[in-house]
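Support case: user asked for a sample of complex input and structure output to validate their parser. Sending the pair below.
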Amino acid sequence: MNETFWDRHGIHGLMAQFETPEQLIAAANRTYAAGYRKMDAYSPMPIEGLAEAIGFTRHWVSAVVLAGGLAGCVGGFTLLWWICVIAYPHNVGGRPFVSWPAFIPITFECTVLLAALSAVLGMFAMNKLPMPYHPVFNVPSFAAHASVDRFFLCIEADDPKFDLIQTRQFLQELNPEEVAEVEK
Amino acid sequence: MKTEELDQRAIDPGPDKIIAPGYDYATVTDKIANTVLMPVEKTPPQWWISLLIAFTLMQGLLVASAWLLYKGVGVWGIVIPVAWGYAIVNFVWWIGIGHAGTLISAILLLLKQDWRTSINRFSEAMTLFAVAQAGMFPILHMGRPWLGYWLIPYPSSMWIWPQPRSPLVWDVFAVTTYLTVSLLFWFVGLVPDLATMRDRAKQQWQKVVFGMLSMGWRGSAQHWSRYQMAYLLLGGLATPLVVSVHTVVSFDFAISLMPGWHTTIFPPYFVAGAIYSGFAMVITLAIPTRKWFHLEDLITTRHLDAMAKLMLGTGLIVGYGYMMEAFMSWYSGNPHEMFMYHNRATGPYWPFFWALVLCNILIPQSLWSRRVRQSVPRLFFVSIVVNIGMWLERFIIVITSLHRDFLPSSWGMYYPTQWDWAVLLGTIGFFLTLMILFVRTLPSISIFEVREVLHHLAPHILEDSPKPAHGD
């Protein structure tokens, strides 16, 4: 079956519900091994190894934070240098204009400020949050339990291997509590 | 066990456990969410009474600030030579209190101390509200607060710029960065719990409010992966930040030439003192909160004991700082330094100095005893004593150095006025009002992190599940 068929029928994917994090990781591993790639796992707390199990191994958070920190460091120091040398040169007891040791505290604070802002804003942006609507919440037990005590695995309809019947059968074999269709 | 029973249950599991037995993911969620979602009529009466007292105290701040803005800083007791007075004493005190929150959430995160989980959210909120109080003092102290934006470097039509070599300008950057990073840390930690609140809320308006605040968080594994990295890096950034903030605050003093201020022990001993007072405040606030909302299951004697130990440890560093101040003033051979210490201990403010020694050094030694650390009333008493002691320390540092400087002709005395007291008590009221509202409107314990602890602590819950199939 191709993508457009499921798009027309308004299916985001198929979702299996599990009772424990261990079952979810095992299911995610088997799903990945079966050749599915477009999937996501959902849990009420971070679980070690879950992202790797669904094949998500790289993210850019650390790189973004490094870039933000460097920008803050360079920007902060440049601001102070510009104030003290160009904009408002002030001779204090014959000391040099570029008295860099006195610039360190503010440079440090600017580094931390921009690194922290880029960590948070970058993380939310890369997670595409805020997101006011997402199809997974159309599954009633997901809306009630995904942030509390149940663990979910969703194989998405735009996966090339996705087939409503076969994929449902496959998910049933993973010993879930429930398998549900996720409407768009 | 049923959720309703757990909501009312309050069994402290003792000094070994960070969580009482019998919880699973759902019941622990409901236990914490219940502090927010319980109907208004079930709110503990102590909560209302405390809110009323704190809110009343806060009015003192409003009246005193209005009077200050109308008349000018002369309504305070500040004089020449003591131009800093209560405003700076309170500023340093409040900002110090904030430090324990960051220590608990950032440093203990990096050290993988899982007992931090039940108290980190709470202490982060405390940090935020304490820094908010601290931030008001330099602004009120300016005399013309409406010109406060002059502190920020911006291209003004006057063509003048702040002096970035001055510790007072460093302070502006340090405190605003600290406030921003604390707010980010607190909010990022809240987002998954806000999603839980959204899904647990019964009333429509609650669903809408929590829904907007949680920004559509859905607990995706990819999201968690980025989230954890961002949170860890924030912890790594906040750790040097918290050290830098009180270091910069101590530079306000140490960079000057005043006897008693011009000393290199100030940065480390200010940071230790900040953490000391902060832990005292966390204990002061945690003890009533866990009682009102039956949270002894989650904030256990283990937490109180650990915080008491940290308080003792940082208190000893502070005690060492006092000893070194005395030693260095003697060893320097500088008559002004020697006079300064002599004047502190025997001059006109001697009762404050000896009260400080009693509150900050002598009484906290009782924390060596397990019977004090693990007894709620005794620990509560010691925490109040340390709060007062740390306020006295800042009073001694600011007032006694200024009132006797190099020139005897400019010596003077400082007496606080009623407006000084109104502002101090008013900020305590404002701080407590914010804390009291916080514990009832947002999950004051990090729910998802408690679930993580449950996951790590209780493999027996999961005995029936099949073994994970690794090695694909």
